[in-house]
Amino acid sequence: MNALRLSWGQRLLLALGIGLLAGLGSQARMFWQADEAVYDRLVGNWDYPLDPRLIIVAIDERSLQQLGQWPWPRSTHAQLLERLREAGVDRVALDLMLPEPDRKDATQDQLLAAAITRSGNVVLPVLAASTGNDEVPEELLPIPLLADAAAALAHTDIEVDADGVARGLYLKAGMGTPYWPALGLALSGERGAVPGLGDGAAGHASPYQWQRDNYVRLRYAGRPGSFPQVSYIDVIEGRVPPALLRGRLAIVGMTASGIAPRLLTPTSRDSWMSGSEYQANVASMLLGGHAILPLPRLLQSTAVALLVALCALGMTLSVSPPWVSAAVALPLPLLASLVLLRGFDLWFAPVAALAGILVVVLVCGLRQMRYWRRQANRDPLTGLANRMRFEEAFRLEYYAARRSGRPLSLALIDLDNFKHYNDTFGHHVGDIVLQHAACMVAELARRPRDLAARFGGDEFALVLPGASSEGARQLIEALVVRVRQSGVAVGKGQQARISITVGLATLTPESTGTPADLFRAADAALLQAKAAGRDGYRVAADA
């Protein structure tokens, strides 16, 4: 892209400006939907072997048919826990909300509490709920009798994005401070450092607000239905072999359609996942060390800005065509996102960077097109307009003059004895002579619509819209004198004298005239000047 002739300052300004805009766009999450679409494509089929200890005890349709209408007596859950304890289940997450005592039979709560105590490994859920939009959320805990008997309490706050897809969760949450672990975290039994990003509002925690911390992206073990399930009724009635349950991490929860929570995940958009399987995925992810950590917002936006700025700087320095640079630069954000995700379990949202690089490609492409268009109309040796550009501009100015009734002047300029310079001093000196003469001709095209052109090998043309015959004659006379007095260095201490011959014509175009009329008049005046001995000019008497 050196052909664009951008200065270093312009390159840096372009790179930093677009990089900053891309970084701000990433910080504001302007492209979150596109980013999530990319994320879903990258992780949707990125399965891993699930932890074989996990199993779901499903409250399914068959269990509801045989045990009756929901809710069941709590003694039924106590019976289930006894079956699981006898089978040697390692840990149980009883994903059922029990915030109120049984008002019909107090012994039901006592039976369940006793079963939880004997098991010694039961996790019960906590949930934040609000009865109205303006009311302070309330932390719903199991009744004290059951909470005291439980081995742990854990929150079941499921994070669902604005498009309805569950991609991540907060591993810690609680009222005022995030002290409850997620249910899947409590089930896994992991005791090490909890991964994840902060909520951002933890420093301004209110004791009346539900606070969250340690956000991670949930890597799913597979599509819905990947985890083994046994029916609640089969466990109670002893139809599940104890060997199948021994040493397991069991989640007891709803799977029956109509009463079970249903979630969309990146693994599938055509089938739902139950809340119990979601919690199983959380536990499996943590046990296997598969949590995906998003880049912190500041690091994410800084990475986007740097990536775009470096690509922009590289593209403005590149000598390759814009589409070649684009083919190299555009895949970089997606490649960086893929490498960080698959190699380091880090999520880098790439679309803001992709959009920034695309803007750079468009800007550089437009500048390149302008450059090519300019070059197509420019003589490469002298920098003047070429013959094609001259003919187009001359025709347009002629008809513009005819519409406005203003004069138009045309000067045809011939460099005298040019072949002599090539034959005597070589073509290199000949080129210098042409460039020297072209520079002096170009200085006469001072107004925006004036045009200086290289008409042929050693011929130049000057189009002067609105210039009167006298005004144009004075310019040409000064040009002839200036060229005559100048010289071109052809060797050490040696100067070559140059001169030009000019034919000038001025007219105010009539409705029946054509550009050829003015050109013929200027050409005839040039021939007269040449016949008079060159190194001078002639003005057409009547164009």
Automatic annotation (TrEMBL):
Pfam families: CHASE2, GGDEF. The chain crosses the membrane at residues 298-316, 347-366. Its EC number is 2.7.7.65. Keywords: Membrane, Transmembrane, Transmembrane helix. Residues 406-542 form the GGDEF domain. It comes from the Bacteria. The keyword rRNA processing does not apply. It is an enzyme of class 2 (transferase). This is diguanylate cyclase. It comes from Stenotrophomonas mori.
